[in-house]
Design brief:
The chain is an alpha/beta fold and 386 residues long. Helices cover 41% and strands 21% of the residues. Helix 1 runs parallel beside helix 2 and helix 1 crosses helix 10. It binds S-adenosylmethionine and iron/sulfur cluster. The site of S-adenosylmethionine (SAM) has 17 residues, from strand 2, strand 4 and strand 5.
Length: 386
């Protein structure tokens, strides 16, 4: 009998106190249209949770994890976040061991905030540190100093958070190998048990992309970014945080269960403006603008803006793309549902995958080329498929 996937909630908070020049997430600062909707966020989010229950009347699953992302969830009063946790618990039931994550910016973290989050049932804090280099933080338009994330992580541990994660970014124009190494050392010194390290993506339409276009800052160097990834993997692994997903490292048992569920194809309901949901192969996404999303919910309308049901082929593509990123490994034949002998030998011969128990997984070099490996696996299915 196949086990039903877990049910999870992602909750989007679309507000920031200022916009970082590299970020194109669906988020609004004071003065931008939509920020006025901040007072409407809580009732709208509660209504959306009730709507989710009405859409899943016979679903007996308790909720395995909740992830408040943004934007900056901690710009809202903690009572707003608590009200949504309560709504999820009363409508669906939160599993006794549910993981409840809140993303926070270091400059907002105070002992009082941390106590309130713990009292609301939050179990995991994810802090956006980005770098310990003041020059890199300035290029990224971050509003916190180099040490405030370190301080925030320590405060969170002292307050009693057993799960604290730091997000860092590599490949920022002007960053050197030495400054990236110092960032990693600062991360490790905090004793956090989870780290996400992302390559800076220069998103079209952002202030950073315009500055690069005007020649004010140099574009990111791909070789330098690859070297940063390799350094991160070596240093974090050496410190007792092995990789568990291409961009994520954790002490064993401290992996983010919410994100693991996402990569493994679990079901999740996305609450909030622009939030995406995935239920049994159907995807839908909400109206992107916070005011339009809140108004739809206030007037009893569906806040969903679009919907698609994935074909068997799309589902398989998605499975390959997500599963090869996991350190748990994969069975190439199962992934492409066919004879994978030739492609497995070819990828292994080029040092992109390695045996992992009875399965295979990406090597460090393979992780740098994960998208290419995905395409090769999918192409081999087309070349040699039934
Ligand atoms: C969207 S933020 C939300 C949390 C919080 N506001 C923060 O800044 O940490 C989540 C993570 O995405 C990262 N991020 C946003 N834009 C990015 C980009 N263009 N390239 C790489 N990482 C990015 C952020 O730096 C942050 O660590
Ligand atoms: S990176 Fe975080 S703080 Fe900066 S604009 Fe994006 S969501 Fe807001």
């Amino acid at each position: 009998m196949s086990v039903r996937p877990a049910l999870r909630f992602y909750v989007h908070v679309p507000y920031c106190s200022s916009r970082c020049g590299y970020c194109d997430f669906n988020t609004y600062v004071a003065g931008e249209a939509g920020r006025g909707s901040q007072g409407q966020w809580r009732p709208a989010a509660q209504t959306e949770v009730r709507m989710a229950r009405a859409a899943l009347p016979d679903d007996a699953r308790q909720v395995a994890s909740v992830f408040f992302g943004g934007g900056t969830p901690t710009l809202l009063p903690v009572s707003d976040l608590a009200a949504v946790i309560d709504a999820i618990d009363s409508q669906f039931g939160l599993a006794a061991d549910a993981e409840v994550t809140v993303e926070a910016n270091p400059e907002n973290v105070t002992p009082g905030l941390l106590d309130d989050l713990l009292a609301a049932g939050v179990t995991r804090l994810s802090l956006g540190m980005q770098s310990a280099d003041p020059g890199v933080l300035a290029t990224l338009d971050r509003k916190h100093g180099a040490l405030s994330a370190v301080k925030a992580a320590r405060l969170a541990q002292l307050a009693g958070f057993g799960q604290v994660s730091l997000d860092v970014i590599y490949g920022t124009p002007g960053e050197t190998s030495e400054s990236w190494r110092r960032t990693l050392e600062a991360v490790i010194d905090t004793g956090v048990t989870h780290v996400s390290a992302y390559a800076l993506k220069v998103e079209v339409g952002t202030a950073l992309a315009r500055r690069i276009q005007r020649g004010e800052v140099a574009p990111t160097d791909d070789d330098q970014a690859a070297a940063c990834y390799e350094a991160a993997d070596a240093i974090l692994t050496g410190a007792g945080l092995p990789w568990y997903e291409v961009s994520n490292w954790a002490v064993e048992g401290h992996e983010c269960r919410h994100n693991l569920g996402y990569w493994s194809g679990d079901d999740w309901w996305g609450v909030g403006p622009g939030a995406h949901s995935h239920l049994a192969g159907t995807r839908f996404w909400n109206l992107r603008h916070p005011t339009r999303w809140a108004q739809a919910l206030a007037t009893g309308e569906d806040p969903v803006d679009g919907r698609e049901t994935l074909t068997a082929d799309q589902l398989q593509m998605e499975r390959v793309m997500l599963q090869i990123r996991l350190a748990a490994g994969f069975d190439p034949a199962e992934l492409i549902q066919g004879d994978a002998t030739a492609i497995t030998s070819s990828l292994a011969a080029r040092g992109l995958i390695e045996p992992w128990g009875p399965r295979w997984r990406l090597t460090r070099r393979g992780r740098l080329l994960a998208d290419g490996v995905t395409l090769e696996l999918l192409d081999s299915r087309i070349d040699h498929g039934p």
